[in-house]
Amino acid sequence: MSIVVSLLRQPRLMCHHIVTCRSSSSLINTPEKEISFADHRTAYAHLSRTEILRAWIVLKLCSFDFLLQNSLKVLEHSQRVLGRGLLEKILRPTLYDQFVAGDDPQSLKETANKLKKVGIKLMILPSLEEDVGQKSDENRYNSNVEVTLQLAEIAYHHGGPLSCLQTKITALISADLLLKLAERNRDKEDQFRTISSWANYMAGGLLAPVSYLDKTENIELEKGLERLKSVGAFASGLQLRLLVDGEFTYLNQAISIAALSMAGAFNQSRPVVWNTYQCYLKDAFEKICSELEITQRMGVGFGAKIVRGAYLERERQLSVEGNYPDPTNPSYEATSDVYDRVVEYLLEEVVRSGGQRCNVIVASHNEKSVLKALTKMRSLGISPKDNTVVFGQIYGMASNITVKLASEGYIVYNSVPYGSLFDVLPYLSRRATENRAVLKGTRRERTLLARELRARFLGF
User: Fold this and answer.
1) What is the pTM of this model?
2) What are the Proline dehydrogenase domain coordinates in residue numbering (predicted)?
């Protein structure tokens, strides 16, 4: 109760947003109704007092740098000391329930229904991935396909057509093989030839052996592409949006080739397969332009999820260890500039392409970036109902943005992790380490949560 009392004593939050922006040609008119993300009553109306208090406590814990840097070690040590059973009793009603949708179809259904009441759609995130050095395992990859297809069915059942499902290429193909492919496909035309070959195979054609792979690796590649084909075809049949997540830069070239190959096979009429673009990387804008050009050469739709990125700390460490230039932007502000530039460019491309050939997910917890995107949409005449530009945030965070956008008629998704506690928490720990800037920056949201608690307890 002392925590509640301290929260109730916090000063009231005063916030006023002034959005002014000049386009390249003219002054953008101030919107008729400016959106404020300080509306705590709307943001948390769907949550109980207990859920609001839990959110404040968990986000407060996430603001401590030591815990974020050492979260996986803390979890492993706690499991040794407390035992698996006791640790689960502590973590399930706290960290797990705050950020994870559940570990079975029923719990996922309950989360989906709760979000649906406030107009939020699911973007399901299975905790399936692999890194270089892990032993290739065909049985694991095939199991990952089955899990992905099951989640695709669940996504469709709860959200219908255009529901989102996230996936990682490393869940379906060996990361070691992807690394070898990335190192041999640096030339732009080499990339296009590989993409065209893989797209042709996934569309029903033949696959020519790759000269620099041995017989075993070529067989492994073909099996991997067959898995990508099955997932892409299934998503296309259900009219889902299959979002390929970005990973480490040493794999991203091959991941982009795989994602664009799937786009070549399945994006004939609209974007089914979307790639993710990490704007903390210096070359993000150039990468977007290059990959958009490739889809245009193939005559297929282009889908893009725009994020700031989740591997910044590790990328900087790798550049030091490998003695190569840091691929990341020097500051959060520089990343924000790149992010806003990318979003503005793609929103203009949505209009240039006539709407349905280019779709964008503005995935951000940054209020300024979201407001800039909204202003740009209005200036270009992009309606939220077009479903060409949508928004996304992580489940359990930034409800003040997500719920408010939904209440104003925008299409909004929550990225919702799914899986058992001891499968998902290590995954979340790795993401927490990489998302320290986001998690440490939750002070404003904690203030809004405190205001809502004060309103619930004291009536103002």
Assistant:
1) 0.88
2) 109-443
